[in-house]
Amino acid sequence: MKTQVVIIGAGPSGLLLGQLLHNAGIDNIILERATPDYVLGRIRAGVLEDGLVSLVREAGVAERMEREGLPHDGVKIAFNGEIRRVDLHKYSNGRQVVVYGQTEITADLMDARKASGAPAVYSVENLKICDVRSDAPYVLYEKDGKQERIDCDYVAGCDGFHGVSRKTIPDNVRKEYEKVYPFGWLGMLSDTPPISDELIYGISERGFFLCSMRSEVRSRHYVDVSLDEKVEDWSDDRFWNELSSRLPEEVRGDLVTGPALEKSIAPLRSFVCEPMQYGRLFLVGDAAHIVPPTGAKGLNLASSDVNYLYRVLLKVFKENKPEAIEQYSELCLRRIWHAERFSWWMTSMLHNFGDEIDRKIMNSQLDFYTGTEVGQRVIAEQYVGLPYEEVS
Ligand code: APR
Ligand code: PHB
């Protein structure tokens, strides 16, 4: 088999890139280790920057997002028992975010892929990426016990944090930066109305909380827990009681509880791999970077990589400029480090770690950044997302 681009991974990065390339007439094959149901069963975040919203529109997959997504003009931050609102719309020149689950985007992209007839192979095993430093790379994998080979021009490694793509870059070329935080987020999804029409991120004596949503009747809540906690030890009642104890009094009475649809614990990590290009292999999304979820940047960063790789590949295939690939890593990493900084900063302000003086300083930061115009601008511009750069 032969194609122009092999895409490894059918998460949101791989599917979105595949759709954009397919629409542009660039042949691609997606290879995914898991089954479609497994991919769709993962509950992830759901705040979309306008850059991602535009890219989903450009891919022609925006119909349900436009109908069901909830545009948000503000976000709330609670500390010292008080709730403050950051006016995203006012302080980011009229921009906004859209609340729409990553699981829904993935489902929309999978449907579009199926309708397009472009190939996506699920349940592949033992995938290997070969000869990416040559001008004739290929990918080997097994499907139903049979060895397969695809020759290609480029390989897009969209295979997440635990994939094979990153490790294909030799150790002496690859540099990884990592920080692991001393807590995780316990998340719970429920068919209960959200406590507020906007997200509330907050910190209390008992720790962090986030009241988020998927729709007017479905909520997603989080509390931070120590790393040795097990999800089985968290009954629904225990979760609701813990969340309730962390909420400011003015909203506590508005909390509507109900049975959990899903509960899971995710560790928090900051991680970046440099470079993101090695010969004809590109790393995209979680394969190259992880942010702690405070700030909702994971999916949005993946989409910014997809944006850059798509535009670079347009230069390569449509304008015959193979040298365009050289800018990929630098373009991506500039934006990634900004989002790493923002996510680390939001995490530091909103979690109880460090010593007493750190907590006092973080409390003062929350006061300054939510209580002044200049501070709100700093949060708003970054929360709605920094702009994508031009690709030359
Ligand atoms: N071969 C084929 N597929 C693989 C392999 C492999 N060796 N290893 C991993 N995969 C698949 C995984 O099964 C998964 O479906 O790659 C996919 C990667 O998807 P995600 O982990 O969702 O990563 P990505 O598409 O980059 O999504 C962006 O940003 O912060 C996050 O929550 C956010 O998951 C979202 C991510
Ligand atoms: C979510 O809705 O799951 C969510 C929202 C905002 C975040 C993280 C997760 O920062």
Radius of gyration, Cα only, in angstroms? 21 Å
Q: What is the average of the pLDDT values?
A: 97
The outline comes out as: globular
State the name of the first-level CATH class of the domain at 5-70 and 102-178 and 269-350: Alpha Beta
Q: How far apart lie the N and C ends? A: 32 Å
Q: Can you tell me the CATH superfamily of the domain at 5-70 and 102-178 and 269-350?
A: FAD/NAD(P)-binding domain
Structural class: alpha+beta
Low-confidence stretches: none
Q: What share of residues is helical?
A: 25-40%
Task: Give the tags.
globular, binds P-hydroxybenzoic acid, binds adenosine-5-diphosphoribose, alpha+beta, eight-stranded mixed sheet, single chain, FAD/NAD(P)-binding domain
Task: Note down, in words, how this protein is organized.
The chain has 392 residues and is an alpha+beta fold. It has a domain at 5-70 and 102-178 and 269-350: FAD/NAD(P)-binding domain. The protein has helices spanning 12-23, 36-41, 50-58, 63-68, 88-91, 102-116, 165-168, 236-246, 249-252, 298-318, 328-350, 356-371, 373-384, and strands spanning 5-8, 28-31, 47-48, 70-72, 74-79, 82-87, 97-99, 120-121, 125-130, 138-143, 146-151, 154-157, 175-190, 200-204, 207-215, 218-225, 260-274, 277-278, 281-283, 289-290. It has an eight-stranded mixed sheet with strand order 6-5-14-15-16-13-17-20. Strands 8-2-1-12-19-18 form a six-stranded mixed sheet, with helices on one face. Helix 1 packs parallel to helix 10 (298-318) and helix 10 runs antiparallel to helix 11 (328-350). The longest helix is centred in the last third of the chain and has 23 residues, at 328-350. The model has no long low-confidence stretch (mean pLDDT 97). P-hydroxybenzoic acid binds next to strand 15.
